[in-house]
Amino acid sequence: MHIYTKSGDKGETSLLGGKRVPKYDFRIEAYGTVDELIAYIGLIRDQSIRQDLKIELITIQDHLMVCASILAADCENCKVDLPKLEANNIRWLEGLIDEKESHLPELNSFVIPGGHTTVSYVHIARNVCRRAERNAIKLYDNAEVPDEIIQYLNRLSDYLFMLSRLLVQELGVKEVIWRPKI
User: Fold this and answer.
1) Are the beta carbons of 116 and 171 closer than 8 angstroms?
2) SS3 state at 80
3) DSSP single-letter state for residue 72
């Protein structure tokens, strides 16, 4: 079997379940952006960060693979068993957010991303996560999408923000607060 099938050469692709759709379909945008996010989180994992954070990120990548699988399926009676994203996955993320936030100074303003390459990668992932959430919501308006996927993506962007702040602290770089000139 070859990696290339040539079946997409005319701008269509197959969803789980066999339905063919244009490559710009809402569903493709939704799971494609989640796939992009999985790659960015892998990039963060490849940085010099604590091992426990790497383990968290692997778990998050696993949860995102579940999200992508669900978003890629469009069938009533799929012959494929799909994994499920559970409410406890969302609660797990909330616990990580709370734990990280408890070690950080209070923030009453926006931050300007940067200061260290790793921190910048986390901010890029956070922005891709926000886009994935928007795409999932757009799909939700046109098809069935489990609420847990949108909730998970929403919490994940918060987790990534807290991770960026924690890494600023751990890497010893200055957190730049945005002070609008009004």
Assistant:
1) yes
2) coil
3) T
CA pair distance 179, 182, nearest whole angstrom: 9
Two tokens, residue 116: 């260290």
The Cα 42–Cα 25 span in angstroms is 26
Q: Pairing mode, if any, of strands 20-22 and 111-112?
A: unpaired
Model confidence pLDDT, tens digit, residues 76-135: 666 677 888 999 999 999 999 999 999 998 988 899 899 999 999 999 999 999 999 999
Tokens of 82: 């799909």
- Chain-centroid distance, C-alpha 43: 13
Q: Quick one: 152 exposed, middle or buried, by C-beta within 10 A (0-12, 13-18, 19+)? A: buried
149's tokens:
């996927």
